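Re: your question about Glutamine--fructose-6-phosphate aminotransferase [isomerizing]

S., sorry for the slow reply, the queue was backed up all week. Below is exactly what I fed in.
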Amino acid sequence: QAVDRGHYRHFMLKEIHEQPRAVSETLEGRLSQSRVLEEAFGSEVGAILDRVERVQIVACGTSYHAGLVARYWCESHAGVPCDVEVASEFRYRSHVLAPATLLVTISQSGETADTLAALRDARERGYLATLAICNVPQSSLVRESDLILMTRAGPEIGVASTKAFTTQLTALLLLIIALGRRHKLSADCEAAFVRALHNLPRQLEAALALEPSIEALAEEFVDKRHSLFLGRGVQYPIAMEGALKLKEISYIHAEAYPAGELKHGPLALVDAEMPVVTVAPNDELIEKLKSNLQEVRARGGRLYVFADAATAIATEDGYVVQTVPQSDEITAPIVYTIPLQLLAYHVAVFKGTDVDQPRNLAKSVTVE
Ligand code: G6P
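Result:
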């Protein structure tokens, strides 16, 4: 392989550690001190964004999870309606196309068969324009889309996607800010988000420093067969991504739930054998999340909580709390991704699985 894994034991670990740099590269030339420089996305972008009234995101796997985060951002900050669907469903479903809809595809490889098929199909249907968020400049997806926003993660070799995801989120936030300033996003808000983006590489570095304590915690998962991942709001897709990472490389069954849905089923599964991993930044849903966690604890579940210090959730009976360094609220989903990637990685290493090439999976699914 042309790409070297350096002193890292696996490509996945190298790629996890490359994220501060990959995110910086993705931001390079696209931000001023207080604004997103949308002209850096291409000269025709502005005129198209002026006309967008709605966004439809289509993707697969980890890229789909990036789309789910973007939906929260798009609706709450840009004030623009946004739908997200996995490409294999979207392409075979007849759907109602609202006027002035921008189709956004997200793909690391740009060669995923279902995502490409969805793009080709959309071109027939009369979308306003198609925009690809992609990591491979010479890919089919890039060639066939009207607008391109490249992630600049560099080659990703590990089958389980890591730096592609965090750079996709970074690119999506840039897009949503550019779109949002035409709708409900104020200049002050834009400036605050841009500040958060400038802070992000440093915050990712700080999250990577948690590795030794996450490694210690990972050992407790080795003999587990099932696990539950919880989040609320914009962190729910991060819980989904954390669960996907764990199942892909450690083969432990991992299911993500929005914490408010616990009592509609998964609580029945909770016992001392079921680790419950939770992402708990200090956001507006934290009090609700805390009471969800109490419900788990009352049923004997063991909680692994990745939390902001300000939440005051403490390690006590039934709780293992890992404090995540302070992050800005808008970019917290990107920061909280890191400990979940590290957890999955170290569980897989303890289990001795083939981390970079998990069984039955491919880096890019180019056939249906
Ligand atoms: C495969 C890979 C995943 C990836 C998904 C979508 O399942 O193993 O890591 O997220 O395809 O790939 P794409 O290249 O379209 O992002």
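The two ends are 26 Å apart (CA to CA). The longest helix spans residues 187-208.

Happy to talk it through on Thursday.
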